[in-house]
Amino acid sequence: MVRHTLAVLVENNPGVLARVAGLFGRRGFNIESLAVGQTENPAVSRMTIVVEGDQRVLEQVVKQLRKLVEVLKVQDVTKEEHVDRELVLIKVNAEPAKRAEIIQIVEIFRAHIVDIGRKNLIVEVTGDEGKVNALENALKPFGIRELVRTGKVAMLRGAKEITASEGNSQEERSFPFER
Amino acid sequence: MTVGEAVVRCLEAEGVELIFGYPGGAILPVYDALYRAEIKHVLVRHEQGAVHAANGYARATGKVGVCVATSGPGATNLVTGIATAYMDSVPVVLFTGQVPTGQVGTDAFQEVDITGVTLPITKHNFLVKDPAAVPSVIKKAFHLARTGRPGPVLVDLPRDVTGAKISFQYPEKVELKGYKPTYRGHPTQVAQAARMISESTRPVILSGGGVISSGAAPEVVRLAETVSAPVASTLMGLGGIPGDHPLSLGMAGLHGTRYANLAITNADLLIALGVRFADRVTGAVEKFAPNARVIHVDIDPAEIGKNVRPHLPIVGDVRRVLEALLPLLPPRKNEEWLAAVEGYKREYPLKYGRENGLKPQYVVERLSAATKGESIIVTDVGQHQMWVAQYYCFKHPRMLITSGGLGCMGYGLPAAIGAKSGRPDRQVILVCGDGGFQMTMTELGTLVEQRLSIKIFIVNNKRLGMVRQLQEFYCDKRYSAVDFEFCPDFAALAGVYGISGYTVDTAAAFDTVLDELLAKEGPALVNCLVEPEENVLPMVLAGRGLEEAIS
Fold first, then answer.
1. Domain A83-153 is in which class?
2. Would an 8 Å CB–CB cutoff place B113 in contact with chain A?
3. Predicted local confidence at residue A168, as pLDDT
4. Which value does ipTM take for this structure?
5. pLDDT value at position A179?
6. Could you tell me if B13 and B106 lie in one domain?
7. Minimal-distance CA residue of chain A relative to B297
8. To the nearest whole angstrom, how far is the Cα of A56 from the nearest Cα of chain B?
9. If you measure CA to CA, which chain A residue comes closest to B298?
């Protein structure tokens, strides 16, 4: 099983999320994470979907997504050089005696403390999966009360762009499979 | 004008002449506009009848079928028919009423989230909240339904939207950024197909529903004749090559001819045209066409590689791809292969025992001979459907109208109404089981009201024959809930509707009635009391390969 990160550009219409999510459920594809938001063009939203499966599953996911009328472009960013990030909020137990230790860990990870309660802290961390997991592990001994993640977002490095302007090319639509 | 009137103007602009529907509160403004319109509206007896009729109309004519229903129960009654159209890629546009936009989401009277319900069974759907957007949405709906891989498109119209006033303008162009079907096959792939065909000595063509919907039947015959490749058809593809053409192998698959299945199993090249390799065609997929390289041509990229991995995929419209491919192909003889295939035909013909009473296969065989394969045959779903596929010699495309993918019982009668409405020039014959007929026989009222000259043959074994057959093979003959202990006298029922009714239980009686009937105008129903325990053979059991059929 390989994990793939897909960039999916969709028309920003009501119901489009239901179409995409429904497709995954219906066809038995596993979504590991899904993040949605507007792009530089307010008429277009971008979903970043992390999906697990072999090459054949991935091919069907991509093809079925491209079949949706409101989907403008689907690209597997995993194939190329890319940056991916996720934002995570962690509420962790923090008795006054333990705070210094936690703050030290947070600094090492270049995370931030964004709220302090009487007995707990909220830590905000941004990064790739490895960093987030490492911080989670480091904070576990203190007792994690609550954890929320945005889901991964990703972007190609350098001059390459994924925009909706021309959608998937004729070439991509003629060869939606490994050659 | 009101949006209701605009809807009618849009239909006129799309060239719609006939629609099927059932009115109700939420769709009132559309019906109010239809009151003055030229477009003919066929009032059915149940919304399921409307959508199946639109399906039959679309398949018989090649045009888009149109269907109208109200909100809530009107809309949910369409669901089975929408799924039927979706599975068989039939172009249908459906309009449903909806509660006023202000009440949407409040569980109002007759409110159902029909765009939510039909999301997985429509090519696309729209809930239109902006009255001014209605014409452009309808333009998109027709464009989506008929282009690319055709399919059903639903337009949900809230009551206040259809009641609102707009200045009408029908757009000339469709703006759909995310929808660009590929029609032309990639030239390098097409050239590669030509090479693969020239390297092959045992080619077989598998011709599917895409051949019918793209109008590629003449090209398929030319391809077969040019490269000497026999043609096996899927259920949806029957009529793509004339049934009596020397290269026709009839239907392949679980109830296909042994010779079609043997040809596929022994082929070194399978040229699959407009098919989706459904499980009913392939049998155990790992044993399917084990010796063949596969060329798969389909307009829907998602069908390629879904069930069978092709060696050469070509995304495109079958007709356009074959037009590009044919000039690249030098004629080939493949004499040895064609002789082998002839051998399969001689050794394993379709056959049935003639002893005991009226045989259902005989009914179909006689219908085929009496109509010379020139009638539109509509079926329901079950054993009779398979016998039609096996024993009726279809001469042309769009002559078999049947629910393939969904296997939807109750499809037959309303689909026949749609087919005859669209093709009044053609003899339309409905062959139906007694089970399926009883699911939608309410539409006899519509048939009579519309004065449709449809001949109905009920292949009546007083039971659910296909389920009985499955129970014979898979449940050690424990026949559970398949016998109708009460069965109405269908001939007398026809009489109640003013339709001539006949009951026959021998071959001789059937022959007499058949000749009399086909010569006469007007509807008729023949209740054919057939041998009840007849099985559809050949049959490939679950988990078996095509060449392992029992017959």
1. alpha beta
2. no
3. 72
4. 0.91
5. 41
6. yes
7. A174
8. 8
9. A174
Q: pLDDT-based confidence at A176, cuts 50/70/90? A: low
The answer to whether the Cβ–Cβ distance between B315 and A173 falls below 8 Å is: yes
Q: How far is B145 from chain A (nearest CA, A)?
A: 12
CB atoms within 10 A of CB B541: 13
User: Is the Cβ pair B177, A72 closer than 8 Å?
Assistant: yes
Whether pLDDT at B48 is above 80: yes
DSSP B26: G
Triad B168, B172, B173: Cα angle to 5°:
125
H helix or E strand, kind and range, residue B117: helix B114-117
Spatial separation of the C-alpha atoms in residues B271 and B274, rounded to whole Å: 10
Task: Let me know whether B521 and B403 are in one domain.
Answer: yes
Would you identify the CATH topology of the domain A2-80+160-174? Alpha-Beta Plaits (3.30.70)
Contact state of A167 with B177 under an 8 Å Cβ cutoff: yes
| This prediction's pTM | 0.96
* CB–CB contact A72 B124 (8 Å): no
CB contact under 8 A, A15 and B302: no
Q: Which residues make up the CATH 3.30.70.260 domain(s) of chain A?
A: 2-80+160-174
What is the number of domains present in chain B? 3
pLDDT band of residue A2 (cuts 50, 70, 90) is confident
B218/A contact by beta carbon, under 8 A: no
> CATH number, domain at B255?
3.40.50.1220
Residues of chain A with CATH 3.30.70.1150: 83-153
CA angle, residues B202, B208, B210, in degrees to nearest 5: 125
The reply to whether residue B301 touches residue A66, judged by beta carbons under 8 angstroms, is yes
Same domain, B496 and B417: yes
User: CB within 8 A of B137, min separation 6: which ones?
Assistant: B126, B128, B155
Within-domain flag for B469: yes
Q: Is A47 helix (H, G, I), strand (E, B) or coil?
A: strand
Angle formed by the axes of helices B335-347 and B258-266, nearest 10°: 150
Token readout for B534 is 């007849």
Q: B103: domain range? A: 3-163
**Using 50, 70 and 90 to split pLDDT, how confident is the model at A174?**
low
Instruction: Identify the pLDDT of residue A164.
Output: 81
